[in-house]
Design a protein that fits this description.
Blueprint (H helix, E strand, L loop, with lengths): L1 H16 L5 E3 L9 E7 L10 E8 L2 E2 L3 E2 L22 E7 L7 E9 L10 H4 L1 E12 L4 E13 L8 E5 L6 E10 L10 E8 L2 E2 L3 E2 L13 E9 L4 E9 L8 E11 L4 E12 L6 E6 L4
Antiparallel strand pairs: 1-6, 2-6, 2-8, 3-4, 3-5, 3-7, 7-10, 8-9, 11-15, 11-17, 12-13, 12-14, 12-16, 16-19, 17-18
């Protein structure tokens, strides 16, 4: 508990002063950071890791300090478990502050090492540390650009007692990447929520985005009268002319329906917002497992 209090105090100081170099900010609502990182762990068998993850950003004018990526969680109630990071198929979000101007980030170095304490005996289960890193998305809030750094590979420590930490460099993919914050509002009417899967496709002047699932791990989304927020990334498709929303069936809801109020799309890099007002039901037909609608912007 003392460690939690100390790290939280450092984060609060970072928020108040806005001058801590290489600190991961854990305070809700903090705006004193200039990089937002989205680390995607692959959805493959045993992709998660119990190791510590560090990152270094290499820019055109210099590089950041080596930063350990971790979020401090409040101790859970008795009988529940601690929240873990870098789980299979999940995305972890980190806000970090680098005080010096390092310019546009050209490459990222990732380091994986064993945790300070390793549970259990020297068994195979705990003598190896692996992690399947899929990709990293980076948003530079100061220079207002986003980039994708694909990896799709393993970081492996075969023997934590003999092998040093492993490192890898990630380079940006070709073409520019645009980051969006998607805000979804469900009407406050009886049975307006849904347990179905919700997908979104952005239709732009330069082409369309892939169909993307709106899902935050560990949350129950699209409940009556609630608002949900999601972060998505796609290639640069220009100005958005329409969005396509798709509602799909699940085991819990084989014929879902949903009373969608509105969707707001914010281009994080260009600080531009568009609203897509709907205020109608989406209902899957009896003989189909999916329904989709195309919504034009309302502003």
């Amino acid at each position: 508990m003392k460690l939690f209090s100390l790290t939280l105090l450092i984060s609060v100081a970072c928020c108040l002063l806005g001058s801590c170099d290489g600190v991961v900010c854990n305070v809700t609502g903090c705006e004193h950071f200039n990089y937002e990182l989205f680390l995607v762990t692959g959805d493959v068998l045993d992709a998660e890791t119990t190791g510590f993850v560090y990152i270094t950003l290499y820019g055109l004018k210099g590089n950041s300090p080596e930063i350990r990526l971790h979020n401090d969680w409040v101790k859970p109630p008795r009988g529940s478990v601690w929240l873990r990071e870098f789980l299979r198929g999940e995305t972890n979000i980190y806000h970090i502050n680098v005080t010096k101007d390092i310019g546009k980030v050209g490459k990222i170095r990732i380091k994986l090492r064993k945790a300070d304490r390793v549970k259990g005996k020297r068994s195979r289960e705990w003598s190896e540390i692996n992690w399947y890193l899929q990709e990293i998305f980076l948003i530079d809030r100061r220079l207002r650009y986003a980039r994708c750094y694909p990896f799709y590979n393993w970081l492996r420590i075969k023997n934590i007692y003999r092998q040093p930490p492993v490192t890898a460099f990630l380079y940006p993919s070709n073409g520019s990447t645009t980051a969006y914050k998607v805000t979804v509002e469900t009407m406050n009417e009886k049975d307006a929520g849904t347990l179905g899967k919700v997908y979104i496709t952005l239709i732009g002047e330069k082409g369309n985005s892939p169909k993307m699932l709106l899902d935050n791990d560990g949350e129950i989304e699209f409940q009556q009268g609630k608002t949900n927020h999601f972060n998505i990334f796609t290639k640069d498709i220009g100005n958005i002319s329409n969005i396509r929303v798709e509602l799909g069936a699940t085991k819990q809801s084989p014929n879902p329906k949903w009373f969608l109020k509105a969707i707001t799309l914010e281009d994080i890099t260009r600080k531009f917002k568009q609203s897509f007002l709907y205020k109608k039901w989406l209902t899957t037909p009896a003989n189909k497992r999916v329904v989709s609608v195309q919504i034009p912007p309302s502003n």
